[in-house]
Design brief:
It contains 8 helices and 6 strands, in the order βααβααβαβααββα. By secondary structure, it is of the alpha/beta class. The two termini are 31 Å apart.
């Protein structure tokens, strides 16, 4: 299917969709498999969801892959996840680049292996001029850490108190230059942000589905987009003003 065609029956398509990819562990558990098998299935599913996002004409996709809190998991699981990230940032790069995808990393570099840092930086560098779709990977990402990092850099840059505004602070976040997410999709049923985009999602629409991330397919995405299409975004105004 050609890019953008899939959304023809939907009134409005969000410009930026951010996914909290949750439920890999429960997906594996339901099959009697180790948790890392769930993470491998989740990694495979990223390709399918990205293709579907392209079909619906979504321009910005953000994936929450690993939070600053996920380091507290058992060493084996963290190691398995880091191996997956190291492999995926290498093996998927050529095809993403061919498809015109721009790759960005959101999160702290400290704490990641030198190999993974290099691969994330290389992917961002190689794809920086691509414009078809912007894929932001939130890895070692925490919304609170992001704001702390931004404030530190503002102080280092010598900003005066009166220079600190919502606009200037936004320019110091990892997401500088990206539009705020219009829609946050969380798989696996939880009703929380888990420290994801706490600043940027202030006015995002929220959608939660019980489906585990490895099972979240094109039809599930269509349902999320259909739900978004029904929402009235008012941004504090009255319905008739916010049209
Ligand atoms: C999401 O799946 C992946 C990461 C947080 C890295 P989980 O691993 O959290 O899966 P559940 O929530 O245990 O099912
Ligand atoms: C959120 O999922 C983080 C990612 C999807 C990367 P978690 O599974 O870590 O969230 P909690 O612990 O249930 O809040
Ligand atoms: Mg989880």
């Amino acid at each position: 299917m050609a890019e953008g065609d899939a959304g023809a029956s939907l009134g409005k398509i969000p410009q930026h969709v951010a996914f909290i990819m949750d439920g890999n562990g429960r997906w594996a558990q339901a099959r009697g498999l180790p948790r890392n098998a769930g993470h491998r299935a989740g990694r495979e599913n990223v390709r399918r969801v990205l293709d579907a996002c392209g079909e619906f004409g979504i321009k910005h996709v953000t994936l929450y892959a690993f939070s600053t809190e996920n380091w507290k998991r058992p060493t084996d699981e963290v190691r398995g996840l880091m191996n997956l990230f190291e492999n995926a940032t290498d093996s998927e790069l050529a095809e993403l680049h061919r498809n015109g995808v721009q790759i960005r990393h959101l999160g702290r570099q400290e704490g990641l292996s030198p190999l993974l840092r290099n691969r994330l930086n290389h992917a961002a560098q190689q794809t920086r001029n691509n414009t078809k779709l912007v894929l932001s990977i939130a890895l070692n990402y925490g919304g609170r850490a992001e704001i702390v990092d931004a404030v530190r850099r503002m102080i280092e840059a010598g900003l005066r108190p009166e220079d600190v505004t919502e606009e200037s602070l936004s320019r110091y976040l990892y997401t500088a230059g990206l539009p705020d997410p219009d829609l946050v999709v969380r798989t696996a049923g939880e009703m929380r942000l888990s420290n994801f985009m706490v600043w940027q999602a202030a006015y995002a629409e929220y959608y939660s589905t019980p489906t585990f991330w490895p099972d979240f397919d094109r039809e599930e995405l269509r349902k999320a987009l259909a739900s978004y299409d029904q929402r009235h975004r008012r941004f504090g105004q009255l319905d008739q003003q916010a049209k």
